[in-house]
Fold this sequence. Notes:
- The protein has a single domain (9-278), classed as 3-Layer(aba) Sandwich (Rossmann fold).
- The chain is an alpha/beta fold.
- The protein has a 7-stranded mixed sheet, sandwiched between helices.
- The protein has helices spanning 9-19, 23-29, 48-65, 83-91, 104-113, 154-164, 180-201, 210-220, 231-234, 237-247, 251-265; strands spanning 73-77, 96-101, 121-126, 139-145, 165-178, 222-229, 269-278.
Amino acid sequence: MxxxxxxxxxxxxxxxQLNSGEPSVQxxxxxxxxxxxxxxxxxxxxTVEDFAIAAENLCQRVYNAAAVQENDRLLDAGCGFGGTIAxxxxxxxxxxxxxxxxxxxxxxxxxxxITPLANNKITFIEGDACQLPFDDNSLDTILAVECIFHxxxxxxxxxxxxxxxxxxxxxxxxxxxxxPIFKAxxxxxxxxxxxxxxxxxxxxxxxxxxxxxRALAQKTGFQLASHEDITRQTLPTxxxxxxxxxxxxxSKAAQDVAAVEKISRVGLLHYLIxxxxxxxxx
Length: 282
Ligand SMILES: C[S@@+](CC[C@H](N)C(=O)[O-])C[C@H]1O[C@@H](n2cnc3c(N)ncnc32)[C@H](O)[C@@H]1O
C-alpha cells in the first residue's frame, strides 16, 4: 500500500489502530476525522457514541451551509475516510460525488466503507486539493471539512475552487481561525511551534483570521455567503479525543490537542463554518 506524499503522523496512528480493530478509535474516527458539534454542549456525555453523533452533526452543518442540492456534482476535498460523502449518500439522491485525498491509504478505506445509495454516484481519487483534476466550471459544490489548514496554500485552493466551480456554485469549509493577536503570536513563535505541531499533525497552518478569509474571497472571486462561529459547540470534542490518543499510546497528540483546547477556551482560536459563492460576474 502506497503512503501519503505528505507526513501526517496522526493518520499513521489512526490507520494502525483501525486496522487492529481498536473499538474506541473505530467509533470516534472510523467514519469522520474531525471535531464534533453539540447544539447543547452542556448535554455532551463524554462517550464515544455521543462523539460519533456530534461528528456526524458537524459535517451536516458544513454541507447545509454549502446548500447542497439533489443532482449536484460535488467534490469533497481532503475527504478523509469518506465520512462526509457517506453522510450525503444517506441524506440525498442523484448526487455525483467525488472524494479527493492526498493519502491513498485513506481512499482505500473509504472505497471499502461506502456503497452508493439512491442513484448517487461516488468516485474516490488521489490528488492534491491545490491542483484539482477537473475541467473549468464543472462542479456545483466543493466541501473541505476540517482540512484546509493541511493544504499547501489556502489561496491556491480557493483559486482552483473558483476555476472548477460553475458561476454561482458553493464552497463550504470549516477551519480553525485565529484572532489577529493569536495570528501574530503564531507567526512570531513559528520557528519553535511548527516542528512541535508537525510531529503530530504534519503541516497545519492556522495563521488565518476572518478578515483574511474575507480578503481571500474577494481576491479569488468568491462572495463570503455565511460564517458561523461554533467554537463553544465543539468544546466537548477535546476530552474525548485526548482520551482516544492517550489510549492509543500517542500521548504527544493528546498533549497537542489539549493545547488547542486551552487556546480555544481563552478565545484566541475559533472554530468556524464558512460558505462562499463563486462569483456570477466572473
Ligand atoms: C482532519 S482530516 C479531515 C478528513 C475529512 N474531511 C473528515 O472530515 O473526516 C484532513 C484530511 O485532509 C487530507 N489532506 C491533507 N492535505 C491534502 C491535500 N493537499 N490535498 C487533499 N487532501 C489533503 C488528509 O489526508 C485528511 O484526509
